[in-house]
Every structure is written in C-alpha cells, then in structure tokens.
TrEMBL record:
GO terms for molecular function: beta-glucosidase activity. This is beta-glucosidase. It catalyses: Hydrolysis of terminal, non-reducing beta-D-glucosyl residues with release of beta-D-glucose. The lineage of its organism: Bacteria, Bacillati, Actinomycetota, Actinomycetes, Actinopolysporales. Belongs to the glycosyl hydrolase 3 family. Residues 62-378 form the Glycoside hydrolase family 3 N-terminal domain. The keyword Hydrolase applies. Coiled coil: none annotated. It comes from the Bacteria. Pfam families: Glyco_hydro_3 (PF00933), Glyco_hydro_3_C (PF01915). Keywords: Glycosidase, Hydrolase, Signal.
Amino acid sequence: MTYRATGSRLRRLFPSVAGLAVVTLLTAGLAPASAGTSRADYQDPSLPVQQRVDDLMSRMSLRDKIGQMVQIERDAAGPAEVADNRIGSVLSGGGSTPESNTPEAWADMYDRYQRAALDTRLGIPLLYGVDAVHGHNNLRGATVFPHNIGLGAADDPKLVQRIGAATAEEVAATGIDWTFSPCVCVARDDRWGRTYEAFGETPELPKKMTREITGYQGKQLGGDPTSIMATAKHYVGDGGTTGGQDQGNTQLSERELRKIHLKPFRKAVKRDVASVMVSYSSWNGAKMHAQKYLVQDVLKRELGFDGIVISDYDALHQLDGDDSTLTASEVRRSVNAGLDMIMLSSDHAKFLRLLRQEVEAGNIPMRRIDDATSRILTKKFEMGLFEHPFAQRDLLSTVGSDEHRALARQAVRESQTLLENDGVLPLSPEKDEVFVAGSNADDIGNQSGGWTISWQGSSGDITEGTTILEGIRQVSNSKVTYDERGDGVDGSYDAAVAVVGEKPYAEYEGDRPNGVRISEQDLNTIAKLRSAGIPVAVVTVSGRPVDVSEHVDDWNALLASWLPGTQGGGVADVLFGKHNPTGKLPVSWMRSYDQQPINKGDGKDPLYPYGYGLSYRN
Ligand code: GLC
C-alpha cells in the first residue's frame, strides 16, 4: 500500500525526522505501518481490536467516518455507489431480495457489495443486515420458525438459543452478518400489530429469551464462522403505547418504563448484544430517536452498552413531524442523542451532506462522530470481517435442512397451547376419521405470518414447508378429508378440525383498534361442521389472542397455534397426541377486546389468564 511504502521510505531516509514524518502522514490521514511488518496495524489480526480501531481511525477522513454511520437499503444503492460514498452498511428490508431469491443469489449479492467495499483506499468491509426474525425469513426455502409469541408460549430458552444458532447458520451461508432480532418488546396491548413479535406481556419472557442473542452471536461475537450480530429492539417501550398503536406514545412514569420495558434490554446488554435498535415510538410525547437521556445516559452509560445503536428504517424523517423529508435538525438531534448508525431507505447523499454540515458547523461534536465510528469499526473487527469478508458458502447446505426443520417442528410442538378440551383431543392416528376445514388449514403463508418472504407476508404457497393439513395427513393413518368451507362434512367422521385465525400482516398494518375476531366465513364453516353432529376442535392460527368468548362454549376443543411457520406437522403432532401439549399463555387471553390492555396482575378477569394451558394428562 502506498502509505506503508511512504512510511518506511521516510523512516529510512530521515530517521532523525521520523517523528515529523509521522505527524505529516497522520495529518494526511495516513499513519505508519507497524514497525517491520508489511501491513498497517489495523490489518494485523494479531493486534488487540482497540489498537486496530485506533490505527484505522487515525487514517480516516471525516468523509470516511460519516460514511460508516450510514446503513442503506440495497434497493437504493448498488455496490459501486456504496463504495464511492464510503457507506459502512447495507440492509435488505422486509422482502428486499435479489432477483432470484435463492441462497446462492444472496451470497453473490453480498459478495458483490463486499468486494466493492474492500476495493477502496482503506478497504473497510461492510456490514449487511436483514430481519431474520423467525429464521432467514426473506429467503424462499429457508426454515421459518414460529414467531416469538409462540416461542413465549413454549417458554424454552434453550430451544430459543438453538433456533438462534440454526438461523445464524442459514443467514451466514448467504453472507449476511447481522439480524435485526430479537425483538425484546413487552406487548401490553394486543391490539398492537407487532404483538406476535413479542415473547409475551411481561418482561420475564423476553428477558429469558435473550438467549437467542447467544444463539445468533455464539459465545463470543465472531468466534466462529456462523456468528452473526444480533439486535435487541425496539428501544424502549415499543409495546407499551397507548391503545397498542404502532409507533405511538408510551405514557408511563420512568419507574414503570424501567420496570416493564427496560429490563429485557439490560439482560440483552449483559449477553453482549452487538446492536440495539431504537423504537419509532415516543415516551411521554418525546420521540425515542431524539431521547438523549434514555439512549446516551441510560443505555450507553448506565447499562454500559458498547455496541452499535442503530435507528429504525427512515425513523429520523419522523422527528420534525413531516415524514417525507430529512432535515438538518433531525440529523443533529438523533446523532447527538447517541444514534451511531442511521438506517435509510434512500436519501443517503442528503444525509451525508447534512451530517457533514452539522459537524463542520460545530453542532455535532467530533467526539460523537468518533464514538459512533469506533463502535461500528469495533464490531467489524470483532466479527472478523477484515479477515473473512465473504459469504460462508460451505454452509449453504444448512438452508432449509432436515435438521433445522426438525428443530422448527419441535418448537411448533412446544408452542401449542391447549385452552379447551372435552376429551375430543388427542385424536387417534389409527382410528379417527377426521374432516379438516378452515381458512388457515392449508396455507403456509397464513401459518407463517408477517416477515415471511415479503415484509407483510402473504397467503398462499409462498415457500417450502408443511401446512397444518399436510401435517395431519402425514401423522394420521386413517381417513382425512379437507374442504376449506366444510362442504361435504357428515356424521360419518369421528371429529372435525377447523383451523381459523388471522391473515398475515406486519407492523402498523396489523394494528386492530377494534380487536380481532374469527371471520364470518370461518364461523359459518364451524357451524357447518357442528351441524353434522360431530365433535369440533378449533385451532387458531394468529399473532395474538382472538375474541372467541361468544362461541367457545359450543366447541369441543380450542388449541392456540400462534404463527407456527413452515413446519405445520408440529401442530398435527399435538392434535394426534404425539406430543402432550405444554404451551402456556404468554399473554392474557381477553374476554373481549374492550378489556385491552389486559395483563397479568391488573385485576381484570380474562377468559384465560397469562400462564394458562392444559395438557392431555390433566
Ligand atoms: C422496520 C421495523 C424494524 C426492522 C426495520 C428494518 O420498520 O420497525 O423492526 O428491523 O424496519 O426492516
């Protein structure tokens, strides 16, 4: 490299003015290479990370540093533009996939960005992030695990750690270094569209499930080839907004905020989570992305978080009230509040210009930029990206592997929560002739929910896996008939299974201020099954409790399946007694939505309380 030669040439020619030479080089953004080595300190993996960070920082211009603070949507900037702007990170938002959505195409896309980043003056590798929130869920054919609310019902932290590790293998195989997961939110109002992304309504469940961070990262970040960065999100109080409004306002005293919503982040920091994503929501009317006290003083100083604080997607645009534009004030307030990396759908050139202007005007101190850059570089060194920058293609065979699907099926089994049963369950795989119906019985898109292949998810045959009906056909050795609306059912069957519930959604698209009920179509289907005079077991596939109070007494069983993902066979395992149901409610199941918010210990009277769940050997 030029500076190395310059450095050693200078030292050779002017040993007596070597100090002057070093100052000259430093001023020019260059620093001498390690004595007697053929590379710069920051390129020497045998040196301590802090020394490598310091050396690299000494070579970086302001442009280099602020470039590191940008994470841009892949759709907005190709490899060359990312490299030209010295951008430090790229993301695929929900559904932002390469043209052909295959593991190889992801790995090729990742390597193209990485190669461009390495081909710059300082050759700083980039970090690539995705929302792998229940498996590598953007990728067709990947194993899709139950969403968090089902894992909260399973209440098996070791299993969740294994899920994190399996997900990390499939993610690392495609090159991706970073997942924006786990959501350690505490869902206090089930009208919230992101209730299913929570492990439950108390801090205890997300605290326990922070073990997923260790699954993703390994015992030490970058300690093995499958290690990917985890993200605790969304900091703080996203699940506590008034009325369950997504990106709304969390009106709590600081004491209540700490008691309910902060604890899982404290635990995540103790587990060395690599990044924390700030919430779109507000605390007592003030947007979290400008909350210097909670970000700088509480998260970074009091909790000792030393990783990357990243914004949510275009969240800065919301700070001044006009979501469509990015202003200097929004950049200043968020970066000064302690945000280290800014996630953008586009606008990166404008962001870089505004940030540079604010620094040069003295509105953002250089020590803030250095803190952000140092945190970002530290994670890149810890991840080993300077030594192993490309996709781990030897892991490609793990994507959707039998082993991972078996793990997912176990998670589905353990998440099933039995709420009513007059003895119709378990069904006999040998004897019972079963009629299956309902809008969610044979739809892998519906049983996977949001954040699956696309941001919102969608109904239909969207990826490889087993629907609940297919699982029933696999497990039963007797007659199984299916009709979505129940047409053709008669009294000759021993039982009927009606699989009903919600269609996929994500974020604010899932807010239901008026609650969630079973559709008219599915209610008519259940009525048709009941009119045949046979017992009916209802299975709810949903991201939260569904209002069943006025109907449940007419049913012979009720099983909450949550959002099981691609391995619907796990539901059949419980229906046919291959697995005794052990799931316990991670959220209170309301009598009606006008009880919301309803939570453990609030004195209200739910239909089924938090922690409730039956088994067959009750
Ligand atoms: C979304 C979500 C966040 C996600 C990010 C990137 O708006 O709020 O959970 O990680 O954008 O997709």
